[in-house]
Every structure is written in C-alpha cells, then in structure tokens.
Amino acid sequence: MIRAIIVDDVATVRQALRGLLAQDSRIEVVAEGRNGTEAVSLTHLHRPDIVLMDVDMPRMDGLDATREIMATCATPILIVTSSAVYDARHLPFAAIEAGALDVFPKPNLLNGSGWNSVAAKLCQTVRLLSRVRVVSRRPRKSVSSLMPAHDRPRLLPSWVPEVIAIGASTGGPAVIRQILEVLPADYPIPIIIVQHIGEEFVPGLVQWLDHNAAIRVSLAQDRQAVMPGTAVVAPGNVHLRMVEGPAIKLDNGPLVQHCRPAADVLFHSAAQVFHSKVVGILLTGMGRDGADGLRAIHSAGGLTIAQDKDSSTVYGMPGTAVELGVVQYVMAPQSIGRWLVNLPKSATEVQ
Q1: One domain for residues 41 and 159
Q2: Is residue 137 assigned to a domain?
C-alpha cells in the first residue's frame, strides 16, 4: 500500500485529490494538511511514501515546506498546483530545485469531464514517484569534485560540435538550470532541450530557466533557425526534430517511448542533420526515452554523456543508455556544466 499525504489550503481541492487517488486501491491517503507547516509535521508523524502538496499556501508555502521536509525527513514530493502560479519566485520550479520530484496540474473543479484520465495519470505518477529513493538535501560535498581526470571528456583536435541536445524527465528542471546557469551569454553552441513535463507548465519552465541563465532561453518555434547563444525548450505535447538549415521542426507524431516530446526524436534527428558534430546529453528521468537516440548519436560519431547515478533523481533514462553501451562519459551535473563552458576553447585537446 502506498501511503500519501495531501496538503492544500483549499478543502475542495483536497477532496478532489482524495477522490482521484481513491480510484487506485493501492493508494491510501493517511492525512491531509492546509499549509506548509502542517505538511512538515504530518510528514514527520506519518512517514508517508509520498506528499502531494501545493506551493501557494499561507503560513509556510510549499517551497519552504519542501526545503524543510527534504532536510529533516526526506520524502518524495509531488507539487500539485495551478500552472498560473508563476510569480517572481517561480515557486513550482524552485520547489523542484529544493527536492520535489515533479509538478502536476490541479484538477479543474468546474469541469468534471476527463476525470477518469486525470485520475489514471495522477495515480500512475504517484505510484512511480513513491518508489523513488530520495535523500536529504542538507549541503554536502559536490560529487563532481571527486571525479577522476580520466572520466572527463577530451576532444579530438579541431572537433567543435554544432549543437548540444539535452533530454531529461523527472528531476530534470533543476539539473538543466544547474547546467545552463554557468554558461556565458555569448556561448557559441546552440542548445536544444526536451524536458518531460506537463504541457501546462512548459511556459513557466522556460521563464524560470531564462531568468536564471545568462544565455537566452526560449520556447521552440516551428521552422525556427538554430542560433548560437540560445537554448530552446520543446513545447508540450509535440515532438521537436532537427532538420536541414539547421532549423527546428515541430510535429504531433505518435508517442515515442510513451512520450511526446521525446528525447529519442530529438537525438535521432540531430544525428541525421549534424552527424558527428553533436553532443547528446541524457539526464535524470524515468523510463528509457533517449537511450536509443544516444545510440544514433554515438554511431554517427558524436559525443554522448549521461548523468551519473548518484546525482540522478531517477536513473532510468541515463542508466538504460549506460547499459546499452552507448554512453562515452558519465558525469555529475556540475561537471557537465563546467565541461560545456570549456568546450569551445578545448578543441585542441587530444583524446
């Protein structure tokens, strides 16, 4: 049995979430709270398998509650909030950075249609996230500082990629921010990102990343040219492909690895357009999306990197790629960011 706690300051929202979770007999709601202070105390009292929590609440908001829970009683947290909650603090994504695993849109209480599909998706998310092993977010020594030199990529003379393709899922937003925020504003290599997240939250994710990075981060547009000094994020519920130009092509083709957008689609198309002049980076996430795409990049002569297990919220996607033998380097996020900074000026290093 999966034991869950629901925390929201609106009683009707708590009732709705309880009703949705009741559709799965494997999930039991053991307590409800009205604010972040109650979220912390109830988590310590009940030791649940997962906490479903809003971010915009009185007394203590969900961001501070996430920080406190992850520091004192580390527990999987799913942020359930309105996609309109994008104030100056970017609360949903700041909560992810603090240790929450994912975001989920609040159910529309005025529209009962489609509730069965909402219930199925919410229950599946709760089942998956409740199994994630989370650790305390107290400050600790950086993993990347312990990485031996031979684990760091070295480049062939004059090899400079023309694009960097990144795929991520659960836990990805915070890692992507960690990578992008160290890049200079004039970074010369375009970056294309596929992040699995609810369609409603993509604009807020882009806004949050752009706010915290020197390079420009924007939502990808169909037929958009690939430009230096920019990072573009795939919109929700459409695939992002690279085409000759180079440019971006958006389409609503069938799901790939149960995902749309899919990292596999981005990686395969990048290998076809850029051949060996592409770096593929696969970050934390559930499932196996991106692994086959990294194989295509590897076969084309590009460079492939996967996030390491210790720093991954979920090691499914990068772990699958490692098992397939298509990953050349396994790195912590801090090391990925530092390596990307030096990439344009390190092309004379010998592999």
Answers
A1: no
A2: no
Q: Determine how many CB atoms are found less than 10 A away from the CB of residue 11.
A: 10
Residues 334 and 260 in one domain: yes
The pLDDT tens digits for 125-172 are 999 899 988 877 654 443 333 344 445 565 554 678 999 999 999 889
Query: Does residue 98 sit in helix, strand or coil?
Result: helix
Claim to verify: residue 167 and residue 119 sit in the same structural domain: no
3-state secondary structure 165-194: EEEECCCHHHHHHHHHCCCCCCCCCCEEEE
Q: Is the residue at 136 inside a domain? A: no
Res 107: pLDDT: 85
Tell me, yes or no, whether 74 and 215 share the same domain: no
Residue 139 belongs to some domain of the structure:
no
Which residues are catalytically annotated? 169, 196, 289
- CA angle, residues 55, 60, 66, in degrees to nearest 5: 55
DSSP 35: S
Q: How far apart are CA 339 and CA 312, in angstroms?
A: 18
294 and 236 in a common domain: yes
Domain encompassing residue 95: 2-130
The predicted model scores a pTM of 0.87
Phi, psi values for residue 275, rounded to 5°? 55, -120
Tell which residue, 107, 75, 81, 113, has the closest CA to residue 94.
Answer: 81
